[in-house]
Amino acid sequence: MWQMTKLTRPLISCGAIVLIAACTRVVGGTAVPAFGTPARQGVNGVKVDAILLDQSRMRAITGAGEHLTIIPSMDADYPVDINELAKSVPRTCRFVYAETAIFGSDFAEFHKTTFQDPPDEALISEAAAAYRDTATARGAFGALVSAVGDCAAASDGQPYIGQWNADADSLQVRPGGCGRDYRIVSLALLEVTFCGFPPSVSDIVMTNIAANVPG
Asked: Is residue 125 one of the residues assigned to a domain?
């Protein structure tokens, strides 16, 4: 299925894609695993840590080189909801600030990492959720596509969506100078979000992540 709406008002805010902390400032520190976080073992051969790209690969793809660093506070093993901001948008657009509305609660493993490129005021993130079976993964993806469509159709939701399209395996959302890309591959729901980078960078990142999912 293919759906699209026209962009009516640009939305450049990084908040539109839940890349909140570092739109305008550098975040220092070193990314480390959360205390007590168990090692991820994988789900039916799908390991989220093996799917996602490492920092060196992300630096090469973005062209940002050593300027691209991981934001320590935005390297997470669980979806994050920013409830106060989620309450500020139309109810149908809650997923903009609530990652549980994107990935659901039935995933077996999850990892999301956000990178910053301060000189270019750019951000990009990569995430993967692995589910117990393909039906559950596709259920989460289908719910997300429906949420995007409902948000776009709302009288006050269009600025959070901009141009968007979806087919059986992928979803793209383009609110102004930012964007979200999703793809369902086997048991995994993949996400790339960006601000300040061209959409082609997101496409390349997504293609490389998808290639890491075991066939």
From this structure: yes
